[in-house]
Specification:
Blueprint (H helix, E strand, L loop, with lengths): L2 E11 L5 E7 L5 E7 H4 L12 E6 L1 E7 L5 E6 L14 E5 L3 E2 L5 E11 L3 E13 L9 H4 L2 E10 L10 E6 L2 H11 L5 E2 L3 E2 L2 E2 L3
Antiparallel strand pairs: 1-2, 1-4, 1-8, 2-3, 5-6, 6-7, 9-10, 9-13, 10-11, 11-12, 14-15
Length: about 210
Amino acid sequence: MPRFHVDIVQLVDAAQPGWVECGMVDGHGVRHSFVEKIPIVTTEHLSENSVFPRDGHIRCTFVSRRELSDGRNLVCVDTTSPDGVESTAGETRFELTSSRLLPDEVVRTLVGTGTWLYSGSVQCVVRVIESNVAFGTGAYEDEAELAEDRLERCFYVEWAPHDDPTGVSSTTGPFSTLDDAQAHVQLASNATVSWDPALVRGRPTTV
């Protein structure tokens, strides 16, 4: 079932199950607010001590799709099902840009591995991950294009600690193409990266 991203901006009522205020910007640039039970919009445990804003999602059903004259695709969704959600204005149908919709799950695929030299001598592992979701900043003050998650093919770079080749010490991205992700690693590693032979001309053969 599809979902769309919302910003959880504040706790409204801490009494179980807890209520929070959320917001999102639709495909026409109009902001909508929701006051909803915490378990409906997030799996996090939120309280008076939580720091806001936070990421949340509202489940919905697909109604229709149309293309605007400027080439953008708008998707009409309804929040009546499955959770009976409506905005503070009583609305349940919204037109969103298709990039605002998120899949039921995030699909991550390892498309490349390599090693690079930290401080010129310490060998560390770096990985390139293909994702079906580009994660937004989650910052309430950012424009929607930056703040919200987007359903699109992209790539992330995961840097492993020198003493834990399977771990992740930091992540950079998203990058639009595999070539962009590799170029970032080349620059960030001071050209010390050595890619696994499975990567041939920027495209994974086997992983």
